[in-house]
Specification:
By secondary structure, the protein is of the alpha+beta class. It folds into 2 domains: about 140 residues, no CATH class; about 140 residues, Glucose Permease (Domain IIA), CATH 2.70.70.10. It has 9 helices and 12 strands. Strand 2 and strand 3 form a beta hairpin.
Length: about 325
Amino acid sequence: MRTLLLVAAFLMLFSSSPYKGVKAAEPDIYQKRMDLYKKIEAVTQIPWYYLAAVDQYERNIRQVRRDLPKVTGITGIYFRPEEWTGMINPNRTDENPASIQYFDGLGRDGNGDKKASISTDEDILYSFASYLLSYGVDHDNIKIALWDYYKRDKTVGIIADKAKIYRRFGRIDLDGHAFPVPIRSTHSYKNTWGDARGWGGRRMHEGTDIFAGYGVPVRSTCYGIVEMKGWNKFGGWRVGIRDINNTYHYFAHLSGFSNNLTLGQIVEPGMLIGGVGSSGYGPPGTSGKFPPHLHYGMYKDNGYSEWSFDPFPHLRMWERLEKQKARKR
């Protein structure tokens, strides 16, 4: 299971839900973003879904980190002034494309106004696309460029997976969710995030337990990609899905997996991934040490590390919305 980074100062810095205070996207913001991706793709030949993946990754980490400025424009990509103008450029507000390139800065003029502005969406995205273009437009070279930029394998993997998801669906408005078990099933749950756990050593509960009958279908809660599948001595048979918002959705104590579920598979809300069970607390195959239930956890990646946050409010909201939708049918 994911390592929980819970020191008191960290919890004071971040609320139990990293979405607190994040406003919902404007109805037409997705179209504005897509228009920008397509425009830069036409100029650089970098596929739009890679641009969208980088943009979404950066937007997500800026939502949960206080050392980065909040997103104010269409794009979420952020350049530090010294990256934009060049490390040895004495002018940290330089907007002259020629002098920026002379000092090996990344800033470029993307809208043709002869300025490389760090606050202009076209210039920002074109500058990152130009950086990628210096390596090549194919998948392998883009991954090399991303590693050289971020110096983190996990970040490269997250961005590459986002690109796969966007390419599969051909759109970027993929914020829909589903409750993890059918709403018509007999189930119950309460907020147990943070409770003490004793098996395997003193630790805290990193999720919400949803009690249901053995074999009740377990469904993907999001658009995402299967990042983990297999056995864990605590969680038993479990599945981990990473969504487009850098959130890792963890499903544990399963009775088994759905047919043909594989690592790297793209999923969507409501897709069957397994069944409720009571596996775990021992070597592979251990089952029956507790009543059947689904342990559901959510973890957020901020570009450096990953931590657990309380899934209960999200489960309540998804269940309520799904019930409202069912009543309208």
